[in-house]
Amino acid sequence: MNNMTRLLKSTALAVIFMAAFSVVSKAQNNVGIGTNVPDPTSILEMKSTTQGMLIPRMNTVQMNAIAVPAPSLIVYNTDSNCYCFYNGGTSKWQSLCQAAGAGAPGATGPTGPAGTAGAPGATGPAGAPGATGPTGVGVAGATGPTGPIGPTGTGVGIPGPTGPTGPTGVAGTNGTNGVTGPTGANGVGGVTGPTGAAGATGPTGSFTNNAWLIVGNPGIVNPTNFIGPLNNADFVMKTNSIERMRITGANGQGVFNNTTPPATNAFSVYANGTVGAISATVGADAIGGYSTATGIGVYGENTGTGNGVFGNSTSTGQGVWGENNGTGAGVVGDLNNAAATGGVGAEGQVNSNAATGVVGINTSTTAGGTGGGVFGEADFGSGVGTMGWTTATNSVGVWGLNNNATAYSGVAGSGGTLLAVVEPAGTQPGGTFEGVKCGIASVAGTGTKVTSYGGWFIDSITAAFATNIYAYVAYYDATTSTKYGILSGGTKSTVVQDQAGQNRVMYCNESPEVVFEDYGEGELVNGVAYVKMDPVYSNSVAINDKHPLRVYIQLEGDCNGVYVTDKTENGFTVKELHGGTSNVKFSYHVIANRKDEPDSKYQDLRYPVIHLADRSTMKAPAANQHATAILGNRKVIK
Hints:
Blueprint: H1 3-17, E1 24-27, E2 30-33, E3 44-46, E4 57-58, H2 60-64, E5 74-77, E6 82-87, E7 92-95, H3 96-100, E8 235-239, E9 242-247, E10 254-256, E11 267-269, E12 321-324, E13 329-332, E14 359-362, E15 372-375, E16 411-415, E17 431-435, E18 452-459, E19 469-477, E20 482-488, E21 493-497, E22 503-507, E23 515-523, E24 528-532, H4 535-540, E25 541-542, E26 550-555, E27 562-565, E28 571-576, E29 585-594, H5 625-633
Parallel strand pairs: 2-3, 4-5, 10-11, 12-14, 13-15, 16-17
Antiparallel strand pairs: 1-2, 5-6, 6-7, 8-9, 9-10, 18-19, 19-20, 21-22, 23-29, 24-28, 25-29, 26-29, 27-28
C-alpha cells in the first residue's frame, strides 16, 4: 500500500473520530478510543477485540450527489464494495481498491456532456482506380469499297493443281518386231515318277579289280583291303578339284581345309578366314557338336596333366564358347574324382588384357528359368564349383557384368535355395546374394595383424572417388591396433515410421572417443544415495584417474541441489548440497571410455589418425572392353 493510501485511511479514521463515541480520552494532544494511553506518535488510536470501525455507506448515485465534497472525504460505496475518497487534486471520487491495485474497478460513473465537434481532418489520398469494366459490344460497321489492284509481284508463285487428263489420241501404227531375246531358264522339273520294281539280285562277284567303286565294294576284308598309299605319301581327298582333307603319310595326322596340320594336333579343322585355310566357304565354325536328351555335344577327356578340351583365342573371338538356350548349361566342367589332389573341371586361359578365358551366356527370354551361362558344381569335400584366380596387377578373378537397365545383378549367389531376391527395377546391382542364415560371407587378412577389412563399399556419386561415400566393414587398423565394426565417412542412421506411415530418419550420436553410456534412476534418502552400476557395464569400461567416470544427474524433485563423489568402477555416491536431508528421486546418465581388449586398443583413442586406402588415385572401372566385345560379337549356334 502506498503513502497516499495510508494517508487517506488515516483521514478516514479522523472523520470517524468526529462522530464522537462514548469512551474518549485525551492526552498529549491526541485521542484514544478504547484506551486511555494512545500512542504518543498517533493523533488517534482505537483498540477493541469485539468491535470494528464503521463509516458511512452509500451507492454511487448517493455518493455523487454530495454537494461540494471536501478533499479526502471518505465513504463506503455499496455498488463497488470499496472505500472511496474525494481527490481534491482531480476533483473526482477515487476508489481505494484501485489505489491499492488489488480490487475490481468501481461502477462506471454517468456519461459526461458531449464535447464540441473538432475541426474536420485533412482529406485523405485518393483511392486506387477501380477495375476496368467489360468492353461493350458495338455494331460492326459497313464494309468499305475494294481498293485498286496492286502491281504484280516478282516472285514465283506455287504451281496450281494439275488439270484433268485430256482425251486419248489416235493410236499410231505398230512398229517392227524387235530381235528375239535369249532363251529363259529351264522351268521347275516335274514330279519324279514312282520307283520301278527292284530287279533280281545278281551273283556275288569277286573283288579282283583292286579299286574302290562309286557303288560300293562287296567282299571287303579288313585289314587286307584298304584305301590309301602304300608308301609315306599323304592321303589327299578332293571335291571339285579342291583339296578338302589330308592324312599325312609321315605320322597320320588329319587336317581339314589345310595342307599342313599343326605339329601337336592329331586332327585339325580350319574354318573360314583362318591362316592356311584352302577354302573360304567351308563355314565360320570349325567344329559343331550336337546332342539330345542326356548326350554330349563335345566331349574331351584328359587322364594326365593336360586338358580334355582346350580353347585358345588370339583376337576378339572365344577359345571355347558354351551357350544354353533352354534350362541346361552352356559349359559344364566336372572333376568327378573324390581322390584327386589337383586338376580342373573346366579352364579358360588367355594371354591378352582384352580377352576372356571362359564366357557363359544364357540367351533364353523366358522368365523364371533356372538355366545358367556358366555352371560350376562341387559334389564332395571342400571342392569349388566355380573359381576365379588372378595373379596380375589390376585384374579380376571373376567378373559379372549386367548391361541391361532392367536386368538383375551382374553376379548372383544363393546359399541353399534358388535366388528369391528381386532387386528394385533399374538399380542394376553388381552382385546379389541370398542365404539361409547368411546372405554373404566376406573374409580378409592373412592371419597377421596388418591393416585389412572384410568389406569395402563405395557409392560413386561423382567421378572423383576421394569425395564419394564409403564404408569399411570389419576394419582392423594396425597403426593403432584397433578393430572397427563399421568405418565410414557418412553419418550412421536408422529409419522409423511416423503416424502417416512415412519413413523418417534418425541419426546416431558421434564421439571423438570410444565411449559406452548407461542410464538409470535413483533416490536420495536423507540427502544421500549410492548408485551401484551394472557389472556388465563396469567390466566393459576403463575407470581410473586417467579415464574418469562422467556422471550427469537430473533431479526429479525440490532440494538444495546435489553433487557426485566416490566414483569407482563399481558405482558412485550422490549427496545433497549444504548437508540437506531431502528425499528426492533422480535419473542419471553415465559415460566412460571403452576398456582395451587383448587384440584391440580403445580407451586412449581420441581423434586417432587413420590411413585409409588412397581413394584420390582411384577411378571408376572403365567399361569392360573385352566383356563388351564378347557380348556384342556372340553368335547363336544352331
